[in-house]
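Illustration: KIB1-4 beta-propeller domain-containing protein.
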Amino acid sequence: MIFEKNGIDDSYITFYDLSRSTIHRFELPFLSGKYIRGSSHGWLILEHDYRLSLLNPISRTSIELPSFRDVSTNLVVGYKRKWSESFDETSGYKRCIQKVILSSNPSEPGCVVVARFKSLNRPLRYCRIDDSSWTKLQADVGHINNPLLLPLWDFIFQNNLVFTMNYNGEVTIYDLENLSVKKFASRLNLISSRYNLVQGVGESGGPLVVKHSVDSEKPSFSVYEWVNNGEAKWCQVKNIGKRVFFIDLPKPIPALSSTNLQLENWQGNQICYHAWCTMTSKYFQIDINCVNLESGKDVENIHSPTDEFPTKSGATLWLTPSLI
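Result:
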């Protein structure tokens, strides 16, 4: 799914259908003036004027979340340079959100929203749908250039717990019910690698991490499941069954989206990823690839869109098959 702006009406959104290799455009007036910061449980997360909104693009239901203007003074855009996709030269608004996840469908009771703000220490904050403010989840953990203080790399919900990993692969688990915090040294070798946290399957299962190399032109993948049955650690998984992982490769910054799906018309045990193949100040294209996890070989009949989309989008997002 590609959000288009600059040059066309920004109330339009484009979906690319991988199964049929077709592009569909829809008019959603609620999108106008907002920036897509991710998707979770089939809902889009939109940022605008120091607020977040949730939008179901099929039912067109929207939910407004609390303002974060009171914490925005502590936020920065980039470290020593401006992220080009974080600043709107027309409105002067600096986008503050890097990634957002939901604990469940927001139309159901008890949904929790966790957002990662852009700052030197990349803090997490959370709120429930009816809250009037955001609550800080993660303590300050320092700057990426300080080797003694390792910032957050990625985070995910799993069985009502928030799992995070830092740049050293260490795992922290937050329980939002009793506000307890547990930390583990994962002993996962991440040299010359980047990774995405992906939601696991089942109530007893832990989250998964997709590790991919960054020292070659074509990434290679391995998958690990978090197991905590006496000794908390990552255990490698070579077969994820009929499921397909759709991931954003976090290059050069951590990913915005990772999704675990089971699709009837796709063979399982696959990892599907995308990369920018052409990008200018006026348009971009993306290249979609898919590999079999066990063999490491490319999956045939996976087609990338041939269209050139105007300007760089805020994100390329993978959504669930059913958005209702």
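Reading the tokens back as a structure: The first strand starts at residue 2 and ends at 3.
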